[in-house]
Amino acid sequence: MQLRYNYRLYPDTAQRETLARSFGCARVVFNDGLRLRQQAREAGEKYVSDAELSKRIITQAKTTPERAWLGEVSSVVLQQALADLNVAYRNFFASVTGKRKGRKLAPPRFRSRKDNRQAIRFTKNSRFKVLDNGRLRLPKIGEVPVRWSRSLPSEASSVTVIRDAAGRYFASFVVQVTDAALPPVESEIGIDLGLTHFAVMSDGTKVAAPKFLRRAARKLKRLQQDLSRKQRGSNRRKKAVVKVARAHTHVADTRRDWQHKLSTSIVRDNQAIYVEDLCVVGLSRTRLAKSVHDAGWASFTGMLEYKAARWGRTFGRVDRFFPSTRMCSDCGRVNEKMALNVRAWDCPCGAAHDRDVNAAKNVKAAGQADFNARRAHVRPASVPAARNEAGTHPDTARSTRSVEGISVL
Question: Which helix (H) or strand (E) holds 296?
Answer without folding.
Answer: none
